[in-house]
Amino acid sequence: MVIATVVFSGCNKKAQTVDNPFMQEWDTPYGVPPFEKIKVEHYLPAFEEGMKQHDAEIKAIVENTEAPTFDNTILALENSGDLLNKVSLVFFNLSECMNSPEMEAVAEDVFPKLSQHSDNISLNADLFKKVKAVYDQRESLKLNPEQMRLLEETYKGFVRGGANIAPENQERFRAINKELSSLTLKYGNNVLKATNDYKLVVDNVEDLAGMPEDQLAAALEAGNEDEATKGKYVFTVHVPSMEPFLMNCSNRELRKELWTAYSSRCTSGETDNSEIINKIANLRLERAKMFGYPSHAAYVLDDCMAKTPEAVDSLLMQVWNPALAKAKEEAAAYQKMMKADGINEALQPYDWRYYSEKLRKEKYDLKDEIVRPYFSLDNVREGLFMVCNKLYGITMRENKNIPTYHPDATPYEVVENGEVIAIVYMDFFPRESKRSGAWMTNFREQYVKDGKNVIPVVSLVFNFTKATKDKPSMLNFDEVETMFHEFGHGLHSILSKCTYRSLSGTSVSRDFVELPSQFLEHWARDPQVMKMYAKHYETNEIIPDSLIAKISAAATYGQGFINTELLAASFLDMDYYKITEPTDIKLPDFEDQALSKIGLIPSIISRYKSTYFQHVFSGGYDAGYYSYTWAAVLDNDAFEPFKTNGIFDPATAKSFRTNILERGNTEEPMTLYKRYRGQEPSIEPLLTNRGLK
Q1: Do 100 and 112 touch, CB atoms closer than 8 A?
Q2: Low-confidence spans in the chain with pLDDT less than 50
Q3: Which CATH class is domain 2-164?
Q4: What is the DSSP pairing of strand 200-202 with strand 233-235?
Q5: What sign for the dihedral angle of Cα 440, 441, 444, 449?
Q6: Quick one: CA torsion of 170, 174, 180, 186, rounded to 10 degrees?
Q7: Can you give the residue ranges of every domain in the chain?
Q8: How many Å apart are CA 299 and CA 288, to the nearest integer?
Q9: CB atoms within 10 A of CB 262
Q10: pLDDT tens by residue, 65-90
């Protein structure tokens, strides 16, 4: 590859190893990555050495002449691959938020190698024989519950990794995994490039009637960053720029232009993802059939709470029908408003947010420009920290001496009873090297090593509007909930108390992992909590009761649209992965058929169209986007005791912490949930809270 001559020019292999920070002990505070020392040229040698060491550790397990035991097989496997794990976590996290052509080149080189390395372990017949030997005698081993869970999950991991694939099919199985690793990487890179490449440049501010002043100021600053657009207003298809534009700009043609650019990403040219989608879906089907499943969805869901595609469809339809009915009511109201504006055309997707915002202002007297000043990023963050302190007794303490990977990524110590129990990075603002959206990840998971607790290093990544020279970063209420949501994921890792790395924190099934995140959103919108953190950025005035009442009254406003676009994406995801025979997937035909089948109205599109649906084609949520709705049933039901006992009730908070947040994947998710709640979840709180009853 070209990278070998460019990146490693002038280096010899010995020097790469000696000077490579991944090959050394990290003497940084709390053992966080020494970001300032890590260069792109360090990754490939570290990956290669990591795989070499891991291979040697696996070989030692296989060649051990003693009878297989929990310690010499299962625990030895769990503790293997430290260097590979270390470099992987740093590289793949930074490739999401500090990407570059050089990083992409490393990824293209290493993805197939990692796929092959993983297959070499999963398909190692001698290794699996030892794992199975321990598994088969599990009832007589007197293991504690966490040891038993590790054994069961290890065995299941081998089976789902291909250990039982017939020998004559293993070469094809490896080829599928290798090709999928390259295709998913290419898909994600295409979305990032297409998102960064587009800019809507507006010369005349008069064409931007309706836009709030702070958004205009941000657009002007964006224009001034480039000599070619200096003095002009620049908008992008990154959500913090696009959403306010679609909500407020009265210029319908400009809304159409921006929306078209957003919704047509990766449908043509060098970033076209259409054929990649076809290949990914069919390769995943072919692999699922090797496991004996009729579809990829059946394979994926067998390891989730939902268990079957039929269970997913049943849940989604329970929410879809009332949501679609409500969306049709909303559409009719917006159509009337368009007619009053002299527009005798059908309501379009680029009209929806504009008229929704307009009606919201009329109905609730709730203007975005009035709400935002009370939700400055700094105030929301401090409010979030106060909530976590009241619920769980933890304190967030900024520490500028901890190395960071970017000036926008602020490191915090999480302190409980005077002890640092985790490190958290919060990275708030967009940049071209960062993909869109918001997410939580780890640079290190929590686990116990040699009897000592290893604290987690958590990263929370956002894309909020940057401050201008005159005003701080201010959030709309959706963004407020996003901050609470991602920190909820963070708490799942921060408060983890597990022995084994592979079971700790967020290492749970995909339809359970969203419970802690969506659960914490309830505090963001609680009136009592809002008065703790919502203060005007200029006057420090606490948000008035009248404005809280309006926000609360509007809580179920627009839920037809919100739920319909979310569920449409969930159905679309399932349709790709419920195919049971090889299919020549053509776009937009496949997508149109999937959405028309459920009756989606033309003025709403799926939250993500196929060509930029990263969750399910490159983000690990394939046949799993339904998880947000599945977990919403859990989180709304889980919040009911707080409504009864008090928003900060210590006993209820302790129960949620000890039964959910601390336990990771040490037991079946429903077992953990029922231990907290005392019963299985009901869908009724979800339908009530979203105004869909």
Answers
A1: no
A2: 1-15
A3: mainly alpha
A4: antiparallel
A5: positive
A6: -160
A7: 2-164, 198-264, 270-366+559-625, 373-553+628-689
A8: 6
A9: 22
A10: 999 999 999 999 999 999 999 999 99
Q: Structure tokens of 556?
A: 């179920």
Judge residue 25's burial from the number of C-beta atoms within 10 Å of its C-beta, 0-12 exposed, 13-18 middle, 19 or more buried.
Answer: exposed
State how far the Cα of 175 lies from the Cα of 109, in Å rounded to an integer: 16
What does the alpha-carbon distance between residue 622 and residue 626 come to, in Å, rounded to a whole number? 10
Closest C-alpha among 606, 575, 522 to residue 327: 606
CATH node for 373-553+628-689: 1.10.1370.40
**Residue 662: active-site member:** no
Architecture of domain 270-366+559-625: Orthogonal Bundle (1.10)
Burial (Cβ within 10 Å: 0-12, 13-18, ≥19) of residue 171: exposed
Do residues 331 and 593 make contact, with C-beta atoms less than 8 angstroms apart? Answer: no
Are 41 and 8 a contacting pair, CB within 8 Å?
yes
Q: How far is CA 306 from the centre of its chain?
A: 19
Catalytic residue, candidates 445, 481, 486, 521: 486
Q: Are 121 and 154 in contact (CB under 8 A)?
A: no
Do 2-164 and 373-553+628-689 show the same overall fold? yes
pTM: 0.90
- Do residues 330 and 558 touch, judged by C-beta distance below 8 A? yes
**In this predicted model, what pLDDT tens digit does every residue of 396-416 receive, in sequence order?**
999 999 999 999 999 999 999
Please count the other Cβ atoms lying within 10 Å of the Cβ belonging to residue 356: 22
Report helix, strand or coil for 411: strand
**Locus of tokens 């963004």:** 479
Percent of the chain's residues with pLDDT above 70: 97
